[in-house]
Amino acid sequence: MNNFDWIVIGGGITGSILSYELAKKGLNVLLLEKNPNYHNATRYSYGGVAYWSGTDEFSLNLCQESKKNYEHLSEELEQDIEFRELDLMLTIPVEKDPQLIAKNYDKFAITPNLLTPKEALEIEPLLNQNAISGVLKLPHGNLHPQKTNDAYQQGFLRLGGTRKYEEVTTLLGKNQTIIGVQTNQNKYYAKNTVICAGGLSRFLLNKMDIALNIYFTHSQLIITPPVEIKLKSLVMPAILNRINIEEKSGDSTFKNLWNAPSDEVIDDVMEVGAIQFLDGSFCLGQISKIKTNPWASNNDNLDEKIIREGIGKVLPTLQDLPGKLHHCLVAFSADTNFLVGKINHFTGLHLFSGFTSTFIFAPPLAKRFASWATEDYQKMPSLSS
Ligand SMILES: Cc1cc2nc3c(=O)[nH]c(=O)nc-3n(C[C@H](O)[C@H](O)[C@H](O)COP(=O)(O)OP(=O)(O)OC[C@H]3O[C@@H](n4cnc5c(N)ncnc54)[C@H](O)[C@@H]3O)c2cc1C
């Protein structure tokens, strides 16, 4: 009864999609999630689907497949994931040259339209014209992240998958062969285990002395109840400073800091972002901090003030909406768009995490992963530090 073909650790969007795709291949899969309330990155996400963001043949194919997949996903999963086309409005700060910032987007498959502040306001009247020198507009997709997560899990359960709310405390194995997991309640066995634990993937890998380039930010954001004000687009900054601090994590000095978890803030960034879901609620963000201890505490009052002041500059009418601050860890990989594959020197251990643009890249890669698992295991990429 405690034996499975695959064990998936983590029930955020990466683990939910992968469990579903593995079960679709006829495998007997156990999904383990430690938190039945899902206080994770998926729940607190904007749910943006960046299908314009392919830069080479492989990522372009993934983007196209993903877009097609979302168009019929609600039907396939028999649950509405609220997928829709929604303009992405990337704001350029008033002191920056819009033409120069626009050049940074030349590498993407779909290049944005550069709008003047006046043109931007015609599309998104909530923007503060005085705070921006322009806006880059891109066709974007959007979904409800937690509803999508739930829809995948319901689909997985209908296929005969098993889900348990237990925390994996240790991986079970001998001589680099993983044979299952120990949770806070039970032991479960499988020939194959895959870590989809988001920001805590690094922590689980470290327990096995595995050093891969997977890290996390502490992210903070505000969720509001449904309100009357209407935001027509997804608003984010055109300059994503978060990417710079993520890239730095791959440097050798940073790597050493990651090996000694601490509460110290190594770097942080506030990026004004806002999405309104179909029920009228908002997610307003976000602060991203590099602190190497996943359980480091934050100064919530100060951080909420920083987010509200940031929002107030770009989207003034949203600054004082009622709402609550939330925190989550967001996994990222310093030098690639994702870490997907089997872990070198181990048998039966895999990773599916560290995505940039998770909602676009995870679904098509989960399908590939499930095919490698069932049809051609040799082709599955190997991950090493
Ligand atoms: C404000 C904000 C906006 C964002 N906007 C976008 C966006 O527009 N588009 C986009 O693509 N991405 C966006 N992201 C990023 C995206 O949300 C994340 O990359 C994605 O949700 C990560 O999914 P995950 O499954 O890796 O992690 P998570 O959702 O964090 O899930 C990991 C799960 O693993 C569980 N877990 C951990 N350890 C264990 C254990 N030992 N045992 C059992 N369970 C365990 C956790 O409880 C958690 O539920 C945004 C993030 C934030 C914070």
Structure summarized in a few sentences:
This protein is of the alpha/beta class and 385 residues long. The protein has ten helices and 18 strands.
Index terms:
alpha/beta, FAD/NAD(P)-binding domain, D-Amino Acid Oxidase, Chain A, domain 2, 9-stranded mixed β-sheet, binds flavin-adenine dinucleotide
Pairing-aware structural class of the strands and helices? alpha/beta
CATH architecture of the largest domain: 3-Layer(bba) Sandwich
In what range is the share of β-strand residues?
Answer: 25-35%
The helix/strand order is: EHEEHEHEHEHEEEEHEEHHEEHEEEHE
For the record, what is the CATH homologous superfamily label of the largest domain? Answer: FAD/NAD(P)-binding domain
- What is the global morphology? globular
The largest β sheet comes out as: 9 strands, mixed
Find the count of extended strands (DSSP E, 2+ residues): 18
Q: Supply the number of helical segments.
A: 10
Helix percentage range: 25-40%
Tell me which ligands are bound. Answer: flavin-adenine dinucleotide
Average pLDDT, to the nearest integer?
95
Tell me the radius of gyration.
21 Å
**Total number of domains:** 2
CATH structural fold name of the largest domain: FAD/NAD(P)-binding domain
